[in-house]
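Entry 14. Structure prediction run on the chain below.
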Amino acid sequence: MMFQELIRAKRDGRALDTAELSELVAGIVDGRISDEQLGAFAMAVYWRGMQHAETAALTRAMRDSGRVMDWAGELSGPVLDKHSTGGIGDATSLLVGPWVAACGGHVPMISGRGLGHTGGTLDKLAAIPGYQPFPDPQTFRRTVREVGVAIIGQTDDLAPADRRLYAIRDVTATVDCLPLIVASILSKKLAEGLDGLVLDVKTGSGAVMPDADRAAELAEALVRVCAEAGTPAEALLTDMDRPLASCAGNALEVAEVLDLLTGKTRGGRLFELSRQLSARMLMLGGLAESEAAALERLDRAWTSGAVAERFADMVRALGGPPELLTKYPQLLPRAPVIEPVFAEGSGRVQSMDMRAIGLTVVALGGGRQRASDDIDPSVGLSDLAPVGQAVDSDRPLAVVHARSAEDAAQAARQLRAAVTMGDDEIAQPPLISRLISHAS
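Output returned:
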């Protein structure tokens, strides 16, 4: 098969069949299709789109391009996972994984690194000294079996076609292409051998797909392709016009998660969304018959301390410090410059450009603009004033954590530019605007 003819067909708007897409994916993996051809294919899909059947066939072919996990007879409970499309202060995976595990589920979570303005789960976990995000397969399976949760990075043998295609999309301005997003997300998740998947699709200024209609279209496509692949799935459409956590930055977000797990802080948007995502996972996995029953089971596990113990057990099993829960303030990296950022005048925070805030963290060194960039886990923003908060000379917009005074000053300028001030009281939008299931 000549790959240039497949590219021509898609360029001209023809739908590709399952055999053609399978051959294309095989060419991605074995190198028969060049980077130039793969970039041209991605751009053709970006402009011409794909029919649903094409998207589903591409997803299955990419899933099957490597190893597909099989947990039959090995685990005592359902195999469940969640995926978020990314946002600012989104550390839900660090709570959801151990929470579901504490309620009888098993969560073999394959996560990614952040790119652009959104943070990545692996980057957060890398802030924990000794944590190994790429364990050998035996350690990974043992941790899932014995602890109930292991959050790791994508291995070379898991959906290898996605690894190469994503790298090409990243440098050809085709990352925000809906069919390729669906195939990228689900090829990895479906390769985990799941009994159920919950998708957290963000919308708003900090989301990869800010427009609510497009975000809903993505959520519906993800759920439908999952169902057709034999994996029950649901999606929640959630708000990213304001940060989930009170901070943005890898070690800072881990510290906030640990503050919640150890009872130092309570409630908040991060906690509540994690609780709701976990409830949907329990219901999909048959661990609860209703939302009320799921929430009751989750609350019991949280109050008993079992969730914190599962998180600590996972960290220990994957190379992290055994004393994390008691000594995390000393163990997590700390930036050398920590300064408050005040607004130019008093008033209330009216809105936040969440993408700009994410890019502020990137500029500090807490994110990457290229896949090869190193990350400083200690930098970021903490104590972010929520939308509607009154700020003045006593209450700052945030506290900046930086490598130098110059970096801190630049971040302060960027933060002030990203925040709109005023005097109006601000109504709080719903954290979750819609539930999308295959039945709906």
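The longest strand covers residues 196-203.
Filed with the rest of this week's runs.
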